[in-house]
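It is worth pausing here to work through a concrete case rather than discussing structure prediction in the abstract. The textbook approach is simple: state the sequence, then state the predicted structure, then interpret. We follow exactly that order.
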Amino acid sequence: MTFTFPIEVAVVKSKLESEGIECKVLDEHTVQVHNFLSHAIGGVRLQVEESNLKKARIILEENGLVQKDNEPKQSKTERIISNPKFQKKIKFSFISIVTIILISALFLFVYRYLNRPTALELLTEKDWCVEYIVYQNQEYIPNTTSDKVQIRLMGKCYEKLDFDISGNVNFPGFNSTRINGKWKLDNNLIKVSQIDTLDFLLERKYEYKINRTELILDSDSLTIYCSSIINEYY
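Step two, the predicted structure:
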């Protein structure tokens, strides 16, 4: 049972103990210090052993300390929590929150899927820096030469692979000037043709793997590894 004031619990406790039922009182001292805290903490609580519960109720009913066929008095918090309407509202709120989270996640997934760039967009709209190529199991680093004096800045890529939407392609040189040619997508392959230099090396059909940060062109004996240039300057 719960009581608003300690003096109320004293009467019930005294009666039960006189009948040989051991009692335990909780939060009595807290309420004695500040009576206005009683409602906030759920009142002063009186407890008995579960084995004595039926006997205690009979004693209290016979002495008019609780109403017959009525449950012991609950605190305001306990009444709210046990209220079916409150439980229904909590359940509804939980389901609503979970539904909103799932719908938001689904919307985000669909949005990203529908707005992901195509391979053509990635090839032509991003800058690709050739890191190295592997030809007949040998690794080579591109090195474009120029008649003009160049000052190469740290963090900037000078060995670019450019796919133009009009069909032109521009490779970095290998101890040579930049290499020009034509390209097109052909049945999920990149077909490179009309290369003006090193045609035996670069002029072929490539399988490709591409995402926002990496491009790999692969043929029977040549693989070109490229990375996306996110920031040209650090």
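Step three, interpretation. DSSP finds eight helices and 14 strands in the chain. The mean pLDDT is 84.
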